[in-house]
Design goal:
Elements lengths: L3 E6 L1 H8 L14 H6 L2 E9 L7 H20 L4 E3 L10 E8 L11 H6 L4 E3 L23 H13 L2 E3 L7 H8 L5 E5 L13 H9 L3 E4 L3 H4 L13 H15 L4 E3 L19 H10 L4 H20 L20
Parallel strand pairs: 1-2, 2-4, 3-4, 4-5, 5-6, 7-8, 8-9
Helix pairs in contact: 1-3, 9-10
Bound molecules: zinc ion (ZN).
Zinc ion (ZN) binds next to loops.
Length: 335
């Protein structure tokens, strides 16, 4: 059976803040355990997002609070969830990979990375929309500040640790500076294609090619505002799975079929595409991709295999970890 893997969702952020239980069928979350199992989901990259109002110690503590929620879910349902790196040879539980969205929890202090690594964090989105200690984010009016000295040191340290360098939300010039220095495969965990929807948040073709050339991964997201121009303006039709499929096909045409998958961003927004209201609607996206010409082998790649293989290339532990859901130490919360 085809496996499903998701490079970005805010489910555990929402669970931590709203008290929702992802294991319950009646939770209002887009992603829950029953839908994950129905989709044959094997990997969920779990966004550890920190709102812009938190900085310094507060950002660090907030991020650990989200990871506490991931750990609590693993403890409560060890049959369902495990924090790890790869599900190879491991039909269940579903592997959860904590992943910082924005580097602000590091508070400009590289030494803080070790505590996050010890808790299973295996990727960092360098910026969110705002400027942080690493660079200008894509929401800055005119992003012009590239990587700071800290940003460069962070990318170097992440490469030493085999953490995935995630360039979602990262505009030029910082994006190009990361590409110039990076030696391991990078990713854009959740994005649309700028060629179809021309906003700074979306990746242009040059960025898509740069990621593919470095054997990286592009996750197309399900946020209407990224896949349909002016999606929320009055009089504009609702976005659908076909809009997402158009972005997948564009990315495949630019990058090749081996480098494209999904980074849903589920539970990170409220207004969904019309026929992709939650993970349970995934068959609608499959139909849209088939209608655009993807065959079963290509669907297998896009739905999960590409992300699984990318993670094996990018985050396999330097010590030669052979795969399988590996327990990582928990309980190092700073808050
Ligand atoms: Zn995001």
């Amino acid at each position: 059976m085809r496996l499903y893997a998701d490079a970005h969702a805010d489910t555990f952020y929402e669970a931590a803040l709203q008290g929702h239980d992802p294991a319950r069928d009646d939770s209002p979350l887009h992603i829950n355990l029953a839908r994950m199992r129905a989709a044959n989901q094997r990997i969920q990259v779990c966004s550890v997002f920190t709102p812009a109002r938190y900085c310094g110690n507060e950002a660090t503590a907030f991020a650990h609070r989200i990871i506490d929620c991931i750990d609590a879910n693993v403890s409560a349902r060890p049959d369902a969830f495990a924090v790890g790196e790869s599900p190879r040879g491991q039909p269940s539980p579903i592997v959860l990979i904590p992943w910082l969205e924005g580097a602000s929890p590091l508070a400009g202090d590289l030494a803080l990375i070790d505590a996050f690594y010890a808790r299973g964090v295996r990727g960092i989105g360098l910026t969110h929309n705002h400027r942080n200690e690493v660079a200008d984010g894509c929401g800055c009016a005119e992003p012009r500040n590239g990587l700071t000295r800290f940003g460069r040191a962070l990318v170097e340290r992440m490469e030493e640790l085999h953490m995935a360098v995630d360039c979602a939300h990262l505009p030029q010039p910082a994006f190009g500076e990361v590409m110039a220095m990076i030696k391991r495969p990078p990713c854009i965990s959740h994005t649309g294609c700028r060629a179809l929807v021309p906003i700074t948040r979306n990746a242009d073709d040059e960025m898509l090619r740069a990621i593919a050339q470095r054997d990286g991964f592009i996750g197309i997201d399900f946020y209407p505002g990224h896949v349909l121009e002016h999606a929320f303006a009055q009089g504009v039709r609702r976005a659908t799975c076909d809009d997402i499929a158009a972005h997948v096909m564009h990315a495949v045409n630019v990058c090749g079929i081996e480098h494209v998958g999904f980074g849903s961003d589920f539970d990170g927004f409220a207004d969904t595409c019309e026929n992709l209201r939650h993970l349970g609607d995934l068959p609608n996206l499959e139909r849209a991709l088939r209608a655009r010409g993807l065959n079963e082998a290509a669907l297998e790649r896009v739905f999960g295999l590409n992300l699984l293989e990318y993670l094996e290339r990018a985050i396999q532990s330097p010590g030669g970890h052979a795969g399988g859901a590996r327990p990582v130490s928990a309980g190092h919360a700073l808050s």
